[in-house]
Amino acid sequence: MRTLRTVGQIRAALAEPRRMGRVIGLVPTMGAFHDGHLSLMGKAREECDVVVVSLFVNPAQFSEPDDLTAYPRDEGRDAAMAAEAGVDYLFAPSAEDVYPPGFATTVSIASLTDALEGAHRGAAHFDGVTTVVTKLLNMVAPDVAYFGQKDAQQAVVIRRLVRDLDMAVRIELCPTIREPDGLAMSSRNARLSAEDRARATALHRSLLAVRENIANGERDPAAARARALAELSSVAIEPDYLELVSPETMAPVQQLDGDVLAVVAARLGATRLIDNELIHLNGRP
Ligand code: AMP
Q1: pTM
Q2: Mean pLDDT within 226-235
């Protein structure tokens, strides 16, 4: 595996395989790899001839300076894990390369980004995501790009970005990888105190409670939420949100009559965690 730092280097490395018609896959990440990242890399390795993993902690998408400073960084460990996963290129540009002096463009998506994460992290968060993903897709020009269902709203936003801007890339969504106790893997989990790590398991339990309520025939979204909220309050978690939304638009559903996405976000100590579960009304798991 080679680590490349500049747009010129990654373009040069991919020129020949592209000319030969090889399928290029990109896994955009912010590093601090865990099994969630590795599952994306594994899928890319299975499906593509050339696998590029980008590693860039994007300052533009952090609304809180402390969150950016505290974000875990260990490029040496990440490089070893990516190499082990069969990645061909680790593309780790500097902030100066991604945002050179005079950088003045923002890619912004309306409406889809207003609620949930957009409402709680501020409009700049998704603008930061869509701008950097646009740049990474332009830099690497992959045939396929891999994202995790763990960041459900981000996935919906990126699908819309690619569709609205006619980008010639296929977006692949990969399932959420969890710890044995159900907590969705996240680079931020390492920052939880032992006590908060134990409380954090309530997030997934709350989503499973929604699923169970619906499986038991509940069709009123407010009622389906009630037990889930109780699951959270039993460990003194007051969520930023716990909503039942449309998986396509992320808008709250008024009635349960199709597939629904249960989404939750909560702050535990200084760490903010998110999770979601897709619930099929016809009883499929
Ligand atoms: P991040 O480095 O947190 O920006 O994540 C990079 C990619 O990995 C994103 O597409 C995430 O949605 C995905 N990802 C993060 N955590 C998980 C997980 N637990 N399971 C599956 N994918 C994940």
Answers
A1: 0.97
A2: 97
